[in-house]
Structure formats: structure tokens, C-alpha cells
Amino acid sequence: MLLSALSVPLNEMVLTAFLVFARVGACLMVMPGISSPRIPMPVRLFLALACSLMVVPLVQPRLETTLENAQSWTILRMIVTESIVGGLIGILARIYFWALQFMAGVIAMAIGYTGSPGGTIEESEPQAIVASIITLSALFLFFVTDLHQEVLRALLSSYSVIPIDSGLRPDAALVDITDAFSNAFTGTLRIAAPFLVFAILVNIAIGLINKLTPTIPVYFISLPFVLAGGMVLIYFLLPELLSFFISEVGVHLRSF
């Protein structure tokens, strides 16, 4: 009799923990830094379990009546919804880093440093060394400035905005993703703008010189000077550009 009386609360607690793990785990699966393939899978799994167990006491009282008479299809719908909500929060936090990674590749092309790709931190595909340095520096500042805590705060706040027993509004989610993509690529375009202007001016100058001296391979001779000019720009502008990027990411994360 005692075991039968304890089995129902225990089942509800386990189910609540699994629902919380679906949202938290999906968020950490795409969150900047933690979702990196450089972090072993067991470490990410234990981190998701630890964060989920911290959230369970906050949502357990609300779900007692909901899970008591829930059907199997209702529980399955809640699991799918929780995974989508967690993945959406992680994507919204990672959008700016996707945009920065793209613009970092554009910067590497603009200064003529696209050869000998190296390993990346966030992705498994190789990337130009300059782009890897930019993305790694931004990711380092992301954790140093405690912006990862803003993602966790947004994850906790999501239980008030989108409770476990409520449905997901796809139209609002698509609007949030569209706005985030627009703001992210607009902000990172400002970061790449000095290098794009540098590339345009340098190519125009090289083209004019090549017209004046067609017998000299001006393009190949100018490559070291173009690369040196791009490195000088990175040396002087990169700290300010990364500060601007982190401030934009902070404003974005504090808005949801």
C-alpha cells in the first residue's frame, strides 16, 4: 500500500523532470559555446541534467494537477512542444554568432586571407584562420561578460511566458526569429563594413594600376600589401568591433 501511494507522485516527478530536460537540453544543444563539438557529449549531457534538476522544483507545483490525469498523446505533445521551445531559445541566442561567423568569412575574403583553413570552435567545418580568431574572441567575451547567464535567465523566464501545459504560437516564434536574423545581420554588417570598404578601394586602385601597366602582374604583386593592410585594420579595429558585437548581443539577450 505504501509503495502504491508513493508511485504516483514519483511518476509525476520523473515526468516533470523529463519535460524540463526536453526544454533545457534542447536549448543547451544549440546554445553558443556549450553546443560546440569540442565539448565532449557526456559533459554536455551532465550539464543539461544539472540545469534541469535545478528547474524542476520551480515548475513541479504547477504541473501536479496537469499531469495527474494527462493522457499519453497529451504527454507526447508536451514533450515535442518543450523541445521546440528550448530549441527556439537556443537558436535566438545563437543567431548573432551565426551572423558573425558568416561576416568573419567575408572579412577574411576582403583582406585576401582565405587560404590554409584551420579548425573552428563552433562548427566542425574548417574556416579561415582570421575568421576563427574573430569567432573565438567573440565567444570568449560572451562567457567573460556573463552573457551566458542571460540565456539561462531567459530559459527560466520562458516558464512564465510559455508554461509547460500551454501550447506554442508558431506565428510569434517566426516573427521573433525573423527579427533576430534581421538585427543580427545588420549588426554584423557594421562590423564587416570597414573591411568591405577597404576591399573595394584596394581593388579599384589595383584595377587602375593594372590598366596603366598591363605588362606587369599587378594583382599578384599587390597581394602581400593588401594582406598587410587588412592585418593593420584588424589590429586597430578588432577590439572596438568585438565590443560593439558583445553590446549588441547583450541587448538582444536581455530583450527576451
Characterize the structure shown.
Helix 3 packs across helix 4, helix 3 runs antiparallel to helix 7 and helix 5 crosses helix 7. 81% of the residues lie in helices and 0% in strands. The N terminus is likely disordered. The protein has one domain. It contains seven helices and no strands. It starts with a helix and ends with a helix. With 256 residues, it is mostly helical.
**What share of residues is helical?**
over 70%
Distance separating the two termini: 47 Å
State the low-pLDDT regions, or none: 1-8
Order of helices and strands: HHHHHHH
Secondary-structure-derived class: mainly alpha
Secondary structure tally, helices: 7
Would you kindly provide a brief summary of this structure?
The chain has 256 residues and is mostly helical.
